[in-house]
Amino acid sequence: MLLAIDVGNTNTVLGLFDGDTLTRSWRVTTNASSTADEIALTFRGLLDGGSEVSGIALCSTVPAVLREMRSMLSHYYAEVPTVIVEPGTKTGVPILTDNPKEVGADRIVNTLAAHHLYGGPSIVVDFGTSTNLDVVSASGEFLGGALAPGIEISLEALSSRAAQLRKVELVKPRSVIGKNTVEALQSGAIYGFAGQVDGLVSRIVEEIGEPTAVIATGGLAPVVIGESTTITHHEPDLTLIGLRLVFAKNLD
Fold first, then answer.
1. Fold designation for 2-84
2. pLDDT in tens, 117-129
3. 47 secondary structure, DSSP code
4. Per CATH, which fold does 120-236 belong to?
């Protein structure tokens, strides 16, 4: 069984693969202060101590957690073949940006998975701590993209700076025209971010100049995809699938 681990700024997602099939997945809060022993304890609890892990694939956007992950893997899974996605790891994804080393590992992994599943060109819209739009060429190259503040951190910033505004549940309001503060905030968040994504996607597709698949992923994708007019696919496990593909490439 392959254990795929995607460490994000807000959440860490784990998936257990039996061959090509994702059999189980979990989402836990990322804690940058967790020690290697605490991470191991969490993992063993989720795996029930009984799942036989024969391989591990990992990507992380949080340096402090990556450091503890390395320590945890060396102590608790020393005999298990492990692939960590970082500069020098074989991914098969050419990175056509000014500075390839600054591109997050999750964005490269998503590019690989998107091209594997849907071909190209394509756009991956990752709704997480930030909203990432990553552009994949017809031949599977990472071309670049656009980054914007995520939905939750935008609402948190608004509530912290405006005394009469507060955090709200991210659900669709009764109408676009909010009749109270909660509905107004929900309208601005859900319809506003859907419009932001649609606007960016439209401009990117115009620049690409040919039909383009648009794949939504990330923990907050379900909040927005129903209101978007440009998203064509929803793949919540895109990063985990990409990690499985990277693991296979590095064990050939």
1. Nucleotidyltransferase; domain 5 (3.30.420)
2. 999 899 999 998 8
3. T
4. Nucleotidyltransferase; domain 5 (3.30.420)
